[in-house]
Amino acid sequence: MAELLASHIASNVVVGLLLLGLFGLWRAVRKHRLWSESLRSVYRRRPIAVWICALYLLVGLSDSVAWVGGQQLGADTVSGHEPKTLLDRAFGDTKEKSYSAPLAGAEFYAKSALRHPGTHLLGTDILGRDVLFVTLKGVRIALLIGGLTSLIAIPLALLMGVLAGYFGKWIDDGVFFVVSVLQSMPSILLLIALITALPKSTLSVCVALAVTSWVGFCRLSRGETMKLRELDYVHAARALGVSEWRIIWRHILPNLTHLIVITFALTFSGLVLSEAVLAWLNIGVEGSWGQMIAQAKSELSREPVVWWNLTSAGSALFVLILAINLLGDAIRDVLDPRTARERQ
Amino acid sequence: MLSYIVRRTAYGVLVVLGVLFFLFALFFLVTKPDDIARKAIGDKAMPAVIEQWKKNHGYDRPLWPGAGHLKDNMLVEHYRRMLTFDFGRSDADDTLILERIERGAGPSLSLTLPEFALGVLLGIGFSLFVAFFRETYIDRSTVVLSVLGMSISSLLYIIGGQYLIGKELRWFPISGWDPSWAVRQRFLALPVLVGIAASLGSSVRFYRTVFIEEIYKDYVRTARAKGAGEVRIMTRHVLQNAMIPILTSIVTEIPFLLMGSLLLEASFGIPGLGSLTVDAINSNDFATLRTMVYIGSLFFVAGQIVTDISYTIADPRIRLD
Predict the structure, then answer these.
(1) Residue of chain B minimizing CA distance to A195
(2) How many interchain CB pairs under 8 A, A with B?
(3) What pLDDT, in 10s, does the model give residues B48-79?
(4) How far apart (Å, rounded) are the C-alpha atoms in residues A174 and A45?
């Protein structure tokens, strides 16, 4: 009980910090003309993708803010004491006994009457849960997988890449060796090895995904730093006696920010898709769309076919990945001067 | 040249030793031999039974080298076993791991080789065609289609293929396997098709970018000024020059072909190395898992060395020193 309480309070605090961070980011972007122009340009290119991402973020956030008490939900007595998220409260009690088709009035196989006939827009799954509700619950998990993993992988890659690229010598040799070792293992096997060896939890999956995905950005930031290190203004700063750390902070890192944004956008969708593969192998995150799809495989061999589980999880995943892919391409086109040539 | 080969190989060996240490850390330090034993024979096993199991599977030595057991410890034993290909027995069912790997390589290759070859040919041919029609609606709609294709999870391709082609149209069996080649073809058709479809989007996109980048280079303009036809420019000039980045991406994938395809093999019932790995996950067979990772990295490192050396042959501008 105390644990449950602590976890939902922690999750609320994280949501608060996230909103604060987003607000801070918004302020920072507004202050810099270049960034706010880029942002506007991305929005002009892909307005729908931006709105879809915002919508997913909103659903994910509404499923992260939770509190105890209020309405007594469900026939089972336990659920009244558990913290409920905003999303849980919006849906209320929707549980049925088993499968029912979208908007049906009776159960799919047993043909007995439902408790809430005609209210399940996307039907119910084998446990009688409303599929729309379960699918929306998956939003938070997908964003968590992409977001948390990036939050681990990108700072790590940036730190290693910049240190290796800026200081060179043995630091570079060491980082390059670690990168070579990690890269020489087939990424799916490395992922599996990590997840089976680590304790089973969402964080473990994210850590495993981070270990396999930080390498690419590390190489990228290492190469960029090596180029930036030789630029005139860095030499000038060094000649003026500016300390190495201050040079990195003031002159190197700001020139890598666009790469951070591009990498974040372009790897996010890959991470969510990787988790779906892991779910298929039974080592994914509980409640993810990948898990829903994996379970739906057997539903297609039923007679008559249960299709709504697969289609809702599949299309929720597809729309998110498509929006992020399109947005990522737009962000890269706007921020990366090298791809500008391709558009001529 | 010779000194480069020697140095490159030495670094490769160093990387493999690094991989082995990583595996040691993961499977002996993070997951202790006691955990492996408990996962294999159950949580409630008696301590004596666990000790016996560890003894049978060679997990009973001290982890690190120390006084009195300089050679007889897990670290040295782990390196000795892996480097001499004496992988021992599976943690789950006591079969010889090496034997199972040898048996699985054939089925894996018979799936991945045709999938890979057809996929590359289709991808290159299609993107060359699209690059020829650049800045027309053919090009633009292909780009949109490839992004759409990339955004669909590979799980959906598998399920969709099995349902549509296997169950509804009944063109090919949904899943299964047969050792004889005549029957095997029928079982392999669907997974090969699904595998190609799932990767076509991203490969067309990649190849197209490479081709488009080449098209705007000076030598193409020169060829055009000389009076070479567009088709000739695409096939003779652009394709040949684009082969270096394309070869790089292709060659790095070849070593992994032998490792099979986890998803396809597991969902289509092909008894290859991918299925072996999936079985190992489901039965907590750590010995097989770490062997698979090791063999994968071995292939990768060997492939990288061969690639780096063969570059000197493909592109005379690259000089090794």
Answers:
(1) B281
(2) 125
(3) 777 777 777 777 777 777 776 777 777 887 88
(4) 42
Percent of chain A topping pLDDT 90: 14
- State chain B's mean pLDDT as an integer: 83
Tokens of B23: 């595996």
Interface-testing mutation among A173, A180, A189, with chain B (most B C-beta atoms within 10 A):
A189
> Which residues on chain A place their C-beta less than 8 Å from a C-beta of chain B?
177-178, 180-186, 188-190, 192-194, 196-198, 269, 273, 276-277, 280-283, 290, 293-294, 296-297, 300-301, 310, 314, 317-318, 321-322, 325-326, 329, 341-342, 344
What is the C-alpha end-to-end distance of chain B, expressed in Å? 7
Q: Which residue of A has its CA nearest to B267?
A: A280
pLDDT of residue A343: 46
* pLDDT tens, position by position, B176-221: 777 777 778 888 888 888 889 888 988 898 888 888 888 888 888 8
State which residue of chain A sits closest to B303, comparing Cα positions.
A184
| CB-based contact B26 A342, cutoff 8 Å | no
Q: What would the pLDDT profile of B146-171 be if each residue is shown by its tens digit?
A: 889 888 888 888 888 888 887 778 88
**Kind and range of the H or E run holding A85:** strand A84-85
Helical ranges in chain A per DSSP H: 2-31, 33-45, 47-62, 86-91, 131-167, 169-184, 187-197, 202-229, 232-239, 244-247, 257-280, 289-299, 308-335
C-alpha to C-alpha distances, A114 to A4, A76, A129, A310, nearest whole angstrom: 31, 17, 12, 22
- What six digits make up the tokens of B107? 């089925």
